[in-house]
Amino acid sequence: MSTSADEINDEVKTIIARVCTLPKETIKDSDLIDSLSADSIQLFELLLAFEKFYEIEAAYDDVLKLETVGDIVAYVSRVVYKQ
Amino acid sequence: MPGLHESHSQVEVVADTETYLAELSTAEMATYVTYTGVKKVNWLLGRMAGKRALQDYFCHNSPDYSATALYEIRVAAASELPSCFVNGVEQTDLLLSLSHTKGRYGAAVVASATAYMGVGIDIEIIRDFAPAMVESFCTAAEYQYWLLLPATKQAVVATAFWTLKEAYMKALHGTKYHPRHFDSLCFISNPTGGVVGNIKAKWTIIEKNSILAVLYNNNIS
């Protein structure tokens, strides 16, 4: 069973909402990742949460290029779901 | 270039921001008003710390120093390094790094680009870390050292590890290294200034609640 783009988008925003303690419905694809996290430590916690949820080890140089929530969704779609 | 003074500064949030705002250029003010909330405060703190560091640098290194000159920091894009300007003239021979934390502190370091390849500064609120988190960003040696610390020291040391690593990554211009690949342990026991290889670093506790780390990469032959 394939995972739809909407489901991936929802998964990503659920993780961001939990780690950054934000209401999920306020998170937009265009939001800058920097603006969602309180500090660089929380940003790193976010990376760890994604690695744990998707059982991946993200390439750190790839992760540094991600700027928006939409970039994370696209990264997860490509790396995890091969879409 | 040996002998040039390096400058770093730290500013604290103030109730009355008018003093800070009066020092912004027209372009900086135009950027400032686009932000809201903590991001707005953080941006202002970073800018003010940068201006203070620039003033201090020129005060120590330039015979033409003027306290009333316009010291300005411009960042073309979020992914680009900040540039320094004095009275509108870009100072291409300077390196600048900025940091701010949770609407409380701003910090900046300025140094000569002929003396260093990069400089990095980071300021973080001291916080508790779960062991798994510390293990995820530390080297094996750092993690073993941290595990053996009394519980009362673990928050400070883990925050210091992170702050030094963050400053290191900035000094390498957004290095692709994972934080766990930089061993900061050698600097922990020498907070007032240690040199290991091409790296010079120091760290300090501010107001019992935050840690400031400054790091210089002098890998210039």
The Cα radius of gyration of chain B reads 18 Å
- Spans of chain B of at least 5 consecutive residues whose pLDDT stays below 50 are none
What fraction of residues of chain A sit in β-strands? under 5%
**Biggest interface pair, residues each?**
A-B, 14 and 19 residues
> What's the oligomerization state?
heterodimer
Shape of chain A: globular
Using only C-alpha atoms, the radius of gyration of chain A works out to 12 Å
Report the helical percentage of chain A: 55-70%
Tally of DSSP helical segments of chain B: 7
The overall pLDDT of chain B, averaged over residues, is: 88
pLDDT < 50 stretches of chain A: none
Name the structural class of chain A: mainly alpha
Number of strands of chain B: 10
Order of helices and strands of chain B: EHHHEEEEEEHHHHEEE
Mean pLDDT of chain A: 86
Distance between the termini of chain A: 13 Å
Major β-sheet strand ordering of chain B: 7-10-9-8
Separation of the first and last Cα atoms of chain B: 11 Å
What does this structure look like?
The complex is a heterodimer of chains A (83) and B (221). Chain A is built from five helices and no strands. Chain A has helices at 5-20, 33-36, 40-54, 60-63, 69-79. The longest helix of chain A is centred in the N-terminal third of the chain and has 16 residues, at 5-20. The two termini of chain A are 13 Å apart. Chain B is of the alpha+beta class. Chain B contains seven helices and ten strands. Chain B is globular. The mean pLDDT of chain B is 88. The interface between A and B is medium-sized, with 14 and 19 residues.
